[in-house]
Amino acid sequence: MTNTFTPPAPKPAAAVSPAPKSAERKSREARRRFTGSSITTVTWLLAFVFFAPVIWLVMTAFKPESAAASNPPVFFFVPTFEQFEAVLSNGAGAYFLNSLIATGVSTILVILLAVPAAYAVSIRPVKKTSDVLFFFISTKMLPVVAVIMPIYVIAGQLKVLDNIGTLVILYTAMNLPIAVWMMRSFFQEVPAEVLEAAAMDGAGLIKTLRTILIPMVTPGLAATALICVIFAWNEFFFALNLTAANAATVPVFLVSQMTSEGLFLAKLSAASVLASLPVVIAGWVAQKQLVRGLSMGAVK
């Protein structure tokens, strides 16, 4: 009797399902696209809302006074440079020169003082460094209106009222705490190995600052300087109360364009546009350094 071997029947192959996108994945991607589009739309709407006053300011600067004060507002008009000519012929140059001197000199002094101070509290900290930093920032907590009277009395006794040098000193003191805190965060981003290598090569403090640290934190330096320029250029309270005719700055000049006779909106808008141009141009020129500088201390 012969036994015949019957091979086992092969197992059926598992069914291979096609790999199209599932309905759940499609729904998830549709929701993601909708969310992205919604965020983009809301962002553009918010940007337009925030920028709309600037657009209206520029439009008003090119209107005749009658069109600027009309109600309802006039959206279609023939542009004119009459208001700019009136502002420039009203002695605006002296005010702009005072602002340039006060802003430029105070910013230079702030940088010269803030760099070594920030180096001391970041690279070479001591036991009371936190107390020093708190003292710096606490000076910004005092309301300006609380100190204007003592400053006015002291400036009067020293006979430095209506003096551009007084504004330079005050703007330097006003911006120095912010500059120290900003530069401290930038210096902390410098690797310690770089400073150790410089010390091994025999570089002193001045050489280390000039040839190593400052080139590495140049974006942060530019950002700090631009912040100081903006704050000093826009400062109004000190300039209004401590100056008269010789040292008045651009913000004081803007207020002088408001007359009791009315019909000053177009002229005031033209003066505001001219006053904004220096800061806008400075920010546009330094925008790359500004973005890099503001992001240097953001991530440790």
Give the tags.
300 residues, 14 helices, mainly alpha
Topology, please?
Blueprint: H1 23-61, H2 65-68, H3 82-88, H4 92-122, H5 129-138, H6 144-157, H7 164-187, H8 192-200, H9 205-216, H10 218-234, H11 237-242, H12 250-256, H13 265-285, H14 287-296
Helix pairs in contact: 1-13, 3-13, 4-7, 4-10, 7-10, 10-14, 12-13
Description of the structure:
The chain is mainly alpha-helical and 300 residues long. It is 70% helix and 0% strand. It has 14 helices and no strands. Helix 12 runs antiparallel to helix 13. The radius of gyration is 31 Å and the shape is flat. The mean pLDDT is 82.
Short description:
The protein has 300 residues and is mainly alpha-helical. The protein has helices at 23-61, 65-68, 82-88, 92-122, 129-138, 144-157, 164-187, 192-200, 205-216, 218-234, 237-242, 250-256, 265-285, 287-296.
What is the radius of gyration computed over CA atoms, rounded to a whole number of angstroms? 31 Å
How much helix, percentage-wise, in residues?
A: over 70%
Structural class: mainly alpha
Give, in order, the helices and strands. HHHHHHHHHHHHHH
Provide a count of the helices: 14
Separation, N- and C-terminal Cα atoms: 87 Å
What value does the average pLDDT take?
Answer: 82
Shape: flat
Q: Report on the biggest sheet.
A: none
Strand content: under 5%
Q: Poorly predicted ranges (pLDDT <50, ≥5 residues)? A: none
